[in-house]
Design brief:
Layout lengths: L4 H7 E3 L6 E3 H6 L15 H8 L6 E2 L18 H12 L5 E8 L2 E8 L10 H17 L3 E7 L7 H20 L4 E10 H4 L8 E5 L4 E2 L3 H8 L10 H6 L5 E3 L1 H18 L12 H15 L21 H8 L7 H7 L2 E5 L12 E8 L2 E8 L5 H6 L7 H17 L3 E7 L6 H5 L2 H14 L4 E10 H5 L6 E5 L3 E3 L3 H8 L6 H8 L3 H7 L4 E3 L10 H19 L4 H13 L3 H6 L5
Parallel strand pairs: 5-6, 6-7, 7-8, 7-9, 8-10, 13-14, 14-15, 15-16, 15-17, 16-18
Antiparallel strand pairs: 1-2, 3-4, 4-5, 11-12, 12-13
Helix pairs in contact: 5-6, 6-17, 11-23, 12-20, 15-17, 19-20
């Protein structure tokens, strides 16, 4: 009996949907879809590829990258131990498999995520591999097909994992500019940073039957809102009803639909000359370094920069989190009154709403007209509630997008002020396409032909912060924080309980000095000895000086070069560079 038990387990499988006991070979013949209830079981990346591509056409792309533990992250286990376990259990090197192949005779590049590997989380290596697949598609002038399955960004890599949302998005933007089709296939589940970037900013978005997709997961939404969720919330049919996907496809029909879409695209695309291969990495990095030099103040410590003696001090990360959240901390509207002149607020997303958590409009900075966009919290409970605690809805992100595009048409630099615990995680936000709204902002910022300068002034929370922070230069106030997830959220997932939030804050490397060392932030703006809320006037003076010192050099850079250097700035956040940034302790 004992000897035959493992074989019996392999022969039979229980459906997660209807609990029917199914013959494993029959289930496999039905593409792992329950013949009784239609439940689509999750597939690993190798099996997904086998189902989609033409036999004999698959050519795997290299997947071995240098080991990287950029934060030296430890929760109940060191991060390298988690990686070792994931590799042993999945048989994969990382959470995505990339390849070239043909589907119905049409050449494509593919990146297929695998939820078995640390929940399909988006880390530096995954971002690098998907970006390389997109670059291969650009070189070969073939469509790119993405199959997503992810719980979100990888917490153990902190803000560097957050940067992958921008890195992959700008690779999608390059394919869009070249007239090459991009398709994402949403499978169950697709959440967080993946949903709010490349899963929803492709040309076509298909959802496999039964897939769930959203910016925030159901458990998080229930905890924050205290509300029961609607029937079928965030499922493929829900997404179709709310206009967030092009179609819902049964697994048995998925390959056929892809073939039809690829055929139509190939027939309508005019012949173009091949795109030359990208320059060697050393050349790309040298150009990026040149771009950083263009934006760097020429003289440190002069009248236009923060005082050289005000070097940011070292304080505990959890203390910094609490300082960043202080209700007296200056808000975007405070800075618009004290740093800028003549602010004229512009309202509305032109689609039916005006989100109070985002404020924006034209203003002057030392006599130069700029477009300023920022999160607005408030100081009192009533103000915080009225502004939704600075958590932008899809309408807020679309309002910001409208103002960014307007700035580009008018030739105005864009200055963004980031202070949000994250994007609105409510039910209505999901119904209105929160993930896609954030994704479109990120993609648009990667190609915006005007200078973009971002400042993290308080909380920089996850994708809601990144939606305003894909910039030529990113500044950060000394007592601000910037993270892929809140310390409380990280503790609840990786530690036994939320009481480990102070420990999680330290592990996430979310303070300004840490992020400056990681290269996520270009400059730390010092605050008065205590904090910004104790001397708002002096904080405003220092911020104004830092803005001018960083913005003025950008004004002399041609638009095409700005875009090129901005892309190269975010392209640096791949696995190779992450490995080189370890050792922050």
């Amino acid at each position: 009996m004992t000897a035959t038990a493992p074989r019996e387990e392999q022969l039979w499988s229980r459906c997660a949907g209807c609990a029917s006991l199914l013959y494993r070979k029959r289930l496999r013949r039905n593409l792992d879809v329950c013949p009784e209830c239609g439940e689509h079981a999750r597939l690993g990346a190798p099996e997904r590829l086998r189902q989609l591509v033409d036999p004999g056409s698959l050519r795997l792309l290299p997947d071995r990258l240098p080991e990287a533990d950029p934060l030296e992250f430890v929760d109940v286990l060191p991060y390298p131990h988690r990686l070792t376990g994931a590799r042993a259990s999945s048989g994969l090197a990382e959470g995505v498999v990339c390849a070239t192949a043909t589907i119905g005779g049409h050449p494509v590049a593919l990146a297929v995520m695998d939820f078995r590997f640390l929940g399909g989380s988006l880390g530096c290596a995954v971002g690098e591999l998907i970006t390389r697949a997109a670059e291969r598609a650009l070189d070969d002038r073939t469509p790119l097909v993405l199959v997503t399955a992810s719980g979100g960004a990888r917490m153990q890599e902190g803000a560097l994992s957050l940067m992958q949302m921008a890195t992959v998005s700008q690779a999608i933007a390059a394919l869009r500019e070249a007239g090459l089709l991009t398709v994402s296939v949403l499978t169950d589940p697709t959440y967080g940073g993946v949903a709010a970037s490349f899963a929803t900013n492709t040309d076509l978005v298909l959802a496999e039957s039964g897939a769930r997709m959203g910016f925030a997961g159901p458990r998080v939404i229930r905890q924050i809102t205290g509300r029961a969720l609607p029937e079928g919330f965030q499922t493929a049919d829900f997404l179709l009803r709310h206009g967030q996907v092009d179609m819902v496809v049964q697994r048995r029909s998925l390959r056929g639909r892809l073939v039809a879409l690829l055929a139509a695209t190939r027939a309508g695309r005019p012949a173009r000359p091949p795109v030359p291969r990208q320059e060697p990495a050393s050349r790309r990095e040298r150009l990026a370094d040149d771009g950083a030099a263009l934006a760097r103040p020429a003289v440190e410590g002069d009248a236009g920069t923060p005082e050289a003696g005000d070097t940011p001090g070292v304080r505990d990360a959890w203390d910094t989190v609490r300082t960043a959240r202080h209700p007296g901390r200056p808000t975007t509207l405070d800075y618009l009154d004290s740093v800028f002149d003549g602010f004229v607020e512009l309202h509305g997303d032109r689609l039916g709403a005006d989100c109070p958590a985002i404020v924006g409009g034209v203003a002057r900075l030392a006599g130069r007209h700029v477009m300023v966009i920022g999160h607005q919290k408030g100081h009192t409970t009533a103000e915080l509630v009225a502004r939704n605690f600075g958590m932008a809805s899809p309408a807020g992100h679309r309002k910001a997008l409208r103002l960014m595009r307007l700035a580009a048409r008018l030739g105005l630099p864009v200055v963004t002020l980031v202070d949000t615990p994250g994007a609105d995680p409510g039910v209505s936000a999901e119904e209105q396409g929160q993930a896609a709204a954030i994704a479109e902002n990120i993609l648009t910022l990667t190609v915006l032909p005007t200078p973009v300068l971002a400042v993290i002034t308080g909380e920089g929370g996850s994708g809601g912060a990144l939606a305003l922070a894909v910039a030529d230069r990113v500044l950060m106030l000394e007592n601000a924080v910037y993270s892929v997830i809140s310390p409380e959220g990280c503790a609840a997932i990786l530690w036994p309980d939320r009481s480990a939030a102070p420990q999680a804050a330290r592990a996430l490397r979310l303070t300004a000095p840490d992020l400056c060392r990681l290269g996520v932030v270009d400059e730390v703006v010092s605050e008065p000895t205590s904090a910004a809320h104790d001397d708002p006037a002096e904080t405003a003076r220092r911020l104004r000086a830092a803005l001018l010192a960083n913005l003025l050099p950008l004004l002399d850079v041609p638009p095409a070069m700005l875009v090129r250097l901005r892309r190269q700035r975010f392209r640096r956040f791949g696995a190779n560079r992450a490995g080189a940034r370890a050792g922050l302790r």
